[in-house]
Amino acid sequence: MASKHVAVLVAGSWGTALASVLANNGQRVKLWTRNAAQAEEINRDHRNRKYLPEAMLPESLQATTDLAEALKGADAALFVAPSSAMREVAQAAAPHLRPDVLVIHATKGFETGTLKRMSTILSEELQRPSEEIVVLSGPSHAEEVIIRHPTTVVVASRDIRYAEAAQDLFMNDTYFRVYTNPDIIGVETAGAIKNIIGLGAGLSDGLGFGDNAKAALITRGLAEIGRLGSAMGASALTFAGLAGVGDLIGTCTSRHSRNWRAGSLLGQGFSLEETLEKVGMVVEGVRTTQAASQLAVSYGVDMPITAELHAVLFEGKPPAQAVEALMGRVRTHELEEAVAFPQE
Residues 4, 30, 194, 214: which is the catalytic one? Predict the structure, then answer.
C-alpha cells in the first residue's frame, strides 16, 4: 500500500505519539505546532522534550509552524488539539483542506458552553457530513505508545469506509492494533467521561484509600458513563469495549494519566490552581466535569461521582467530604443504577 501524507495538529504528547506511529508505519507525516522552538527541536534533534522527554522520534517525522504547509496535499488530517482549542484549530485548517481529505480526531472531551462532541465541531467547521468524521480512542498512554509498547485502540465512524481508512493508516503488526466501531457517540462520550472517573481514582489514591475504594469507583464510574452515553444515543456494547472499560482502567490505574495525577494532588490537599500548575499539561477531566454536570441535567441522568467531583473542583468541597457523601447515599439496588450490556 502506498504511503499517505498525514497532517497532525498539534504537537502535544498524544499528537506526537500518534505522529510517530504513522511515521513508523511509513506514512509521510507533517506535525504542526505554533511553537517555532519546538518545531526546530523535533526536526533537528528528533525530540519533543517538553511532552515526551525520554523519547526519540522517527527521523522521517517533520514538524512545521506553517499550517498551510502541513496540510498541503494531505490525504488525511489528524486533529489532536485540546477540546478548548479544537474549534479554533478546525477554523484555521478549513481553508487548506481538500474535500477528499480523511478527517480524524483523537481528543477526549466536550466543548465548554455548547457541550458538543469533537466530531460535531469538526463537522461544523470543516463543513463535512458527520458520518465522514472518525474518532480514535481507547486505552493508550502516549508515554507507552512512543516506546512501542503493545497498544490497542478503536476508530469509530458512522460510515465504515472512513473507519477502515483510518484503521489502515494506524494499524501495524508489531505494537499498534486498531479495531473499528460504528458507534461514534459512544466512543466519544466514553473517552470524555472516563477522564472524570480518572480524577476520582487519583483523588482516592491521594487520600490514601486502597484498592477496594478504587475498584468501586471504577465500577460505579462505568455505570455513570453508560447511563449518560445511552441517554445520548450510544450503544451499551461500546462501554464494555476498548473505548469504555478499557480506557477507564488505563486512566484510573496508571501514573501516566494526567487526570489521575491531578486527582491525586487534589486528594493530597493541593488547590486546583496548584494542581494544574504541577501537572503542566491540559487536564481534560477538569473541563469535562463541568460539561458532564450540565449534560446530566439536560438528559435527566444521575451522575453522583461527577456531581461530587464538580463540588470539589469548583465549589470548594473538601475531597474527604465528597467521599463521605458518596458512601452515605441512599441505599439502592446495584442493577437499578446500571446499564445492561446486551449479548452480541
Answer: 194
What is the model's pLDDT at position 328? 73
The CATH class given to the 185-337 domain equals mainly alpha
Sign for the CA dihedral angle at 213, 214, 215, 221 comes to positive
Distance CA 46, CA 40 (A): 9
Residue segments in the chain with a per-residue pLDDT below the cut of 70? 1, 329-344
Identify the pLDDT of residue 332. 66
CA atoms lying within 13 Å on the CB side of residue 37: 2
User: 30 an active-site residue?
Assistant: no
**Binding site membership for NADPH: which residues?**
13-14, 34, 51, 108, 142, 258, 282, 284
CATH 3.40.50.720 describes domain 5-182 = yes
Q: How far apart are CA 149 and CA 191, in angstroms?
A: 21
- Please tell me if the domain spanning 5-182 has the same topology as the one spanning 185-337: no
Say which amino acid occupies 88. Answer: E
Decide if 317 contacts 308 (C-beta within 8 A): yes
Segments making up each domain of the chain, as ranges: 5-182, 185-337
Q: Are strands 102-105 and 5-9 parallel, antiparallel or unpaired?
A: unpaired
How many whole angstroms separate alpha carbon 38 and alpha carbon 61?
A: 13
* pLDDT for residue 324: 87
